[in-house]
Design a protein that fits this description.
single chain, mainly beta, seven-stranded antiparallel sheet, five-stranded antiparallel sheet, rod-shaped
């Protein structure tokens, strides 16, 4: 029988011990499901994708479809409810190199209930009504016989949209009705019958407080024109 050197047996035993230690260490390593410090980086064209127990997409973070062009991917955020309906998006369905991604919150039917304006900034939806201007002289109640512009209603408003939509009903003798924003006429004038309907850019910064005025005048002395504001609210670009 061959004689095995003692030092070789010792080396084999040492190797066996090291293998057992490595196996124990591997089995004892906790699952990598938490990060106590540091960060997770998803670069290039990668994305984080979360799916429901029913194998439905719940969240995309990173690359989203469609791409901006053949060489540039679109990076964004898409969150769905567990029934598959969109809930929150930072994404555009028709991107190009200049396209701005709107931030949108949607209801279960797909209606956009909250969105920012991608052209001028500020709020796009919902459409928030402005408080209607109040009569300056209650005794006249939205009527005047003056041939010069006369303010019938005045009131403050907080601008949250780039554009303003206004409708004013007008009746009585021939004349004109107009809307002023901080003393400057906005859009065209209106008259009896068709009234005044306008949708115009306000031209002030988001969040600015302005004064709305409704003015009227007749074209023939001794007659009376009457007006009543129907709606006043902001719109997206």
């Amino acid at each position: 029988m061959a004689i095995i050197p003692t030092d070789l047996l010792d080396r084999i035993r040492a190797l066996e011990r090291q293998v057992r230690e490595l196996m124990f260490s591997a089995n004892a390593t906790p699952a990598l499901n938490s990060i106590a410090d540091g960060e997770v980086v998803i670069g290039e064209h990668g994305r984080l994708r979360v799916r429901t127990a029913g194998d439905q997409d719940l969240l995309y973070l990173g690359r989203v479809a469609p791409d901006r062009d053949e060489e540039t991917s679109q990076q964004g955020l898409v969150v769905r409810r567990d029934d598959g309906s969109l809930a929150l998006t930072v994404w555009t369905g028709a991107p190009d190199p200049q396209a701005v991604q709107p931030v949108r919150i949607l209801d279960r039917r797909g209606n956009v209930v909250l969105a920012d304006d991608t052209v001028r900034g500020g709020l796009a939806r919902p459409y928030l009504p402005f408080a209607l201007p109040a009569p300056v002289d209650p005794a006249r109640w939205e009527s005047t016989g003056a041939t010069a512009w006369t303010t019938l209603r005045r009131g403050p408003g907080l601008v949250q949209h780039p554009r303003l939509h206004c409708e004013i009903a007008v009746a009585g003798a021939p004349g004109e009705v107009r809307l002023l924003v901080d003393g400057v006429q906005l859009g065209p004038v209106g008259g009896p019958g068709a009234g005044l309907v306008l949708t115009e850019r306000v031209g002030v910064e988001y969040g600015a407080t302005v004064t709305f005025e409704i003015q009227a005048r007749v074209t023939t002395a001794g007659t009376t024109i009457r007006c009543y504001p129907l709606t006043l609210y902001g719109l997206e670009s």
